[in-house]
Design goal:
heterodimer, A: mainly alpha, 2 strands, globular, B: alpha+beta, six-stranded mixed sheet, four-stranded mixed sheet
């Protein structure tokens, strides 16, 4: 256990250092984009008085030099203050905390959908190696993998919301209804279904292929032959002996998936009007709301680092041969 | 009332209104349209972007205006031909010298918190809100020196100079009246009522779930007895255009405004039995697509070059191919919908590539070995894909006359910075709101004094013509409507001779609705009016 504790401690120190760098890089990159929030506000409201524009820049601190703005930002972050979104007229921390649950719900659902279905399909394909089932699974995985999520999303809306009318088109819940807890959760679930599947689709394919390849390798190993020779049933061999050992690479992939899922949420939340951090980030980019965007990027990078740590710890537990180091 | 999309181009102004009503009256839906309004029901409006506040009295972003105008009213509204009709003001007179505008205010109007609405609220809104904090209001109300309030139901604007355009700026979406008792003595921009407005309008604020929806509910004490008919309006954020179209088609949303479904889908949606499309209700925010020229460019400052470019481009092409005929080919710098100012009697440029080539040859711009006379950049406004598509058409056309264009694509913050602050452009393709009055919405692109660094949608091309300046300034204070129209007609003629910009398409924006939603577009500001008269017919 001391080894594990010092491992965690070292990782935390690394995370702090990474965060400092992440902020600086984000800051420079964002400010390299031409145009600022006042340009956008002025355009939307058709303000054309230079004095008014200068007043707005002063109010939002945009008249300061970059290093001054960056240092001010660091000092705010140290006090756990992510600043104020002048655009949405609310503290960034409040905005992010409001949106975080929706994004975490969406991401968790997408991970579960893609992980579970991908594992099952991959195992099934490996078990019937080179059969028609295997071919069908591999082909559809390939097809899903190469379908961009904005296209998949709109196709699903077309099929399930417009043609079949089974599911709502967009949003988090049906607006204007006062529902009890259980009907409310069901309502949210119907809204969640398409975004979660859309977000999970690409990784579904990755998990399927990864599971299939790992399983094929494992199914050829001696201990599987031994298990079969002992007379254990095929199903039991598959699930108790093979699948369990195929898990470590899948868990690693899961950790990697979380970081790229953040990118995916921007697209998926925009298509489905899902009120999460991705949608917030999408609007913040176009409206040059850098304070909000910096906050979002910071929180996302912390989440990615924490998930990375959790995955490593989980891996150690799944496979004792993986040592802290 | 459905607009006929396959109508031949060329005559889609308000003259067509009467005709289409008659046509619709013959059908089953026409019968419904004449039915008696029914009370009750909730509609969902598809919102593109999250509003930052809910009061448009000083923030005129579209996503704010469309919500605000249901709660916060203006003094007057306008029929489709801009004839003023009463709202909070029941009567108005302008003194012969144009220096006093008197409003008789409606009696018995209550704010949503129960306090009475009086002339004090009007005086406060004009002097402290519109004149000081409103982006365009600063110019519109610049000449207002005082507001006299001899009694609670009379407000008199006292002006230092005649300002006829004020009478065109009083709709709810442009000049919303705020309650003095809530805002007085506070920081108006930071007042909590901006997030939960208290107005006089037919709908009251109910709730706002950030990132999701704003819910308004019926105001039972509205001054117009029996109205509004709807119980609730939900403004639901649907950021994706395709999803907005799908939501309307699936009956999950009832209204989308300002052409915010994909235009390529609009005709298909219009053909559905449960969906209606109209291009009425946008005269008050008439929008025109035009190409700006940078006069600091050595080629573009030459009138012959600008005229040759005008001959090379046929505005009918982008109007029909890019805008799917939701608009008219522009003939001049004023939108056809602005019936009080528009004239068709202007110099015209026959689309003819041979003529254009001949003009450039005569002007001495020789083609190089590669067939190119000279090279320019074109920056389309990054807002949807219509401006980019138009730029692609222009690139092809100008290629035929030996002008090689490079299209530069950027997002809109970068565009605004490049064109209006850095002046780093040759040609743009841009859509601009002309508002209801040329002094408010149009002169800013042409006045030589409006070459103002950092001001979006100003005279970025550095155009300077004393004759145009003189006409526009005369138009600001001419009180006789006929003379004022004549002044702006002269302006249109000079502008089309001189070509400070090349007008391309007078855009007709569309509202796409659930076919059961009736009477949503009765005025020149359409669904940006209060929706007090809108009603849902039973299923």
């Amino acid at each position: 256990l001391p080894a594990a504790a010092s491992f965690i401690l070292r990782r935390l120190v690394q995370m702090v250092f990474t965060t400092v760098v992440v902020i600086a890089v984000n800051f420079v990159l964002l400010h390299a984009a031409p145009g600022d929030m006042v340009d956008v506000l002025a355009m939307e409201s058709q303000v054309s008085d230079p004095a008014e524009l200068a007043r707005m820049r002063r109010e939002y601190g945009l008249d300061q030099s970059l290093p001054v703005q960056l240092l001010a930002y660091y000092s705010h972050v140290l006090r756990l203050d992510l600043g104020y979104s002048a655009r949405l007229r609310a503290p960034v921390t409040t905005l992010i905390l409001e949106r975080l649950p929706a994004t975490l719900l969406l991401m968790a659902s997408a991970v579960i959908v893609s992980f579970v279905v991908g594992a099952l399909l991959g195992a099934a394909a490996a078990r019937r190696h080179n059969s028609a089932t295997d071919m069908a699974i591999c082909l559809s995985a390939m097809l899903l993998y190469s379908t961009p999520s904005f296209l998949a999303g709109l196709l699903m809306i077309l099929v399930f919301a417009v043609w079949l009318r089974w599911l709502p088109v967009t949003g988090f819940s049906t607006p204007g209804l006062d529902l009890d807890l259980v009907p409310y959760l069901l309502d949210v679930a119907t809204h969640l279904a398409m975004p979660a599947v859309t977000l999970g689709l690409i990784f579904l394919a990755v998990y399927t292929r990864l599971m299939r390849a790992t399983m094929l390798e494992i199914l050829g190993l001696d201990y599987i032959r031994t298990a079969r020779a002992k007379g254990i049933g095929a199903r039991r061999v598959l699930f108790r002996h093979a699948v369990r050992n195929a898990m470590p690479p899948m868990v690693v992939m899961c950790g990697l998936q979380v970081s790229s899922l953040f990118g995916g949420t921007v697209v998926v939340e925009t298509i489905y009007g899902w009120p999460g951090m991705g949608l917030l980030a999408y609007n913040a980019v176009f409206q040059r709301d850098f304070t909000l965007l910096l906050g979002l990027l910071l929180v996302s990078s912390i989440i990615v680092m924490v998930v990375g740590l959790v995955v490593d710890l989980l891996l150690m537990r799944l496979d004792p041969r993986v040592l802290p180091g | 009332m459905r607009s006929r999309i396959a109508r031949p181009m060329g005559r889609r102004t308000f003259n067509a209104l009467a005709g289409s009503t008659v046509l619709a009256g013959a059908g089953a839906r026409g019968a419904l349209a004449q039915a008696k309004p029914v009370k009750g029901g909730t509609i969902t409006v598809a919102q593109l972007v999250e509003a930052s506040i809910l009061s448009s009295a000083f923030d005129t972003a579209t996503q704010v205006q469309v919500i605000s105008s249901k709660m916060i009213e203006g003094l007057i509204s306008y029929e489709h031909d801009f004839k003023p009709i009463p709202r909070l003001a029941t009567a108005w007179t302008v003194s012969p010298d144009g220096l006093r505008i008197s409003f008789t205010l409606r009696q018995g109007v209550q704010w949503h918190d129960g306090k009475p609405f009086t002339s004090k609220d009007v005086a406060f809104s004009v002097l402290e809100v519109w004149k000081k904090l409103h982006g365009r209001g600063r110019l519109t109300y610049a000449n207002v020196t005082a507001v006299e309030t001899p009694d609670p139901h009379t407000a008199i604007l006292v002006l230092s100079k005649p300002s006829p355009y004020i009478m065109n700026a009083l709709a709810a979406m442009e000049s919303g009246v705020l309650p003095a008792h809530i805002y007085e003595g506070t920081d108006i921009r930071a007042n909590p009522a901006n997030l939960a407005p208290v107005g006089t309008g037919p709908f009251k604020f109910k709730s706002w779930a950030r990132g999701q929806n704003v819910v308004l509910e019926r105001n039972p004490n509205y001054w117009d007895p029996g109205k509004p008919y709807l119980d609730q309006i939900i403004f639901q954020l649907i950021p994706d255009a395709g999803a907005r179209g799908a939501a309307i088609e699936a009956g999950r949303a009832d209204l989308s405004y300002q052409s915010s479904v994909p235009l390529s889908d609009a005709k298909r949606l219009d053909a559905l039995p449960n969906v209606e499309v109209t291009d009425k209700g946008y005269a008050y925010q008439s929008t025109q697509m035009m190409m700006e020229f940078n006069f600091d460019n050595r080629y573009l400052k030459d009138l012959k070059v600008r005229q040759a470019i005008a001959h090379a481009i046929d505005p009918a092409f982008p109007t029909s191919v890019v805008w799917f005929d939701y608009g008219l080919p522009a003939t001049g710098p004023i939108h056809q919908n602005l019936v009080k100012f528009y004239t068709a009697d202007v110099p015209k440029y026959e689309p003819n590539v041979a003529t254009a080539n001949k003009m450039l040859d005569q002007a001495g711009y020789k083609r190089g070995a590669d067939g190119v006379r000279f090279r320019l950049n074109i920056d389309p406004l990054a807002f949807g894909d219509t401006y980019l598509r138009t730029a692609e058409y222009i690139k092809q056309q100008l290629g035929d006359i030996g002008i090689a264009l490079a299209i530069r694509n950027q997002d809109f913050a970068a565009y605004v910075r490049r064109v209006y602050t850095d002046y780093d452009f040759d040609l743009t393709v841009v859509g601009v709101t002309q508002s209801a009055d040329p002094t408010i919405g149009i002169q800013r692109f042409y006045l030589s004094t409006n070459y103002v660094k950092g001001a979006p949608f100003s005279n970025a091309g550095h155009y300077n013509n004393p004759e145009v300046d003189r006409l526009l300034i005369a138009g600001q204070s001419e009180m006789d409507p006929a003379k004022r129209k004549a002044i702006f007609a002269d302006f249109q003629r000079v502008a089309m001779g001189d070509l400070p910009v090349l007008p391309l398409t007078s855009i007709n924006q569309i509202t796409v609705t659930n076919a059961r939603l009736k009477d949503h577009t009765l005025t020149a500001d359409g669904v940006f009016d209060s929706l007090a008269s809108a009603w849902l017919s039973p299923k």
